[in-house]
Design a protein that fits this description.
This protein has 169 residues and is an alpha+beta fold. Helix content is 28%, strand content 31%. It is globular, with a radius of gyration of 15 Å.
């Protein structure tokens, strides 16, 4: 069944900054789905806070054959300009979605990264505790904004960009 994922997503909280945004999303798939997430100009990080549904799989359209899907890790990232095919069995999951504007964070990423096949493959299962911790902090700020919340989120998003640059180099 081809379903439009935004129809199945409930945003529980959101913070938008000049070069980044974060959303706490609850996704409910009443039936198995297959869909395409269109290419975005931003880096998109997805940190799953609950177990992913069985048979969850992702595939980079430009790099993998149509039948090739990989199970995403707890944290995955989609580079700018990459479309992603997604499939999942029925289920519910909660995730933090962070989008980073490449122009706004270019200096913190250490310049343009070439998204080689190896980096693309590695982006579906990012095993980096620091990135996970930073995303959780950003999510907590989105859920419970406090004094200077925008500045705090900006500082955390810069740390995320630096850590991404380190991780993929």
């Amino acid at each position: 069944m081809d379903v439009n994922p935004p129809d199945l997503v409930r945003v529980k909280s959101r913070i938008v900054m000049p070069w980044a945004s974060v959303e706490l999303q609850e996704m409910h798939f009443p039936v198995a789905i297959e869909s395409t997430l269109p290419a975005s100009p931003a880096y998109r990080l997805d940190l799953c806070l609950t177990p992913r549904p069985c048979e969850a799989g992702l595939s980079f359209e430009r790099h993998w054959p149509a039948h090739h899907y990989e199970r995403p890790g707890k944290l995955y990232m989609v580079p700018p300009g990459e479309a992603l095919r997604a499939r999942s069995s029925a289920g519910t999951q909660t995730a933090l979605i962070c989008q980073l504007d490449p122009d706004g964070i270019a200096e913190w990423m250490g310049g343009d990264l070439a998204w080689t096949r190896g980096r693309i493959d590695a982006s579906l299962d990012i095993q980096n505790r620091t990135l996970g911790r930073l995303l959780l902090q950003l999510g907590e700020e989105a859920r419970h904004p406090g004094f200077a919340s925008g500045a705090m989120c900006g500082a955390i998003s810069v740390q995320i960009a630096i850590e991404l640059g380190r991780h993929f180099r």
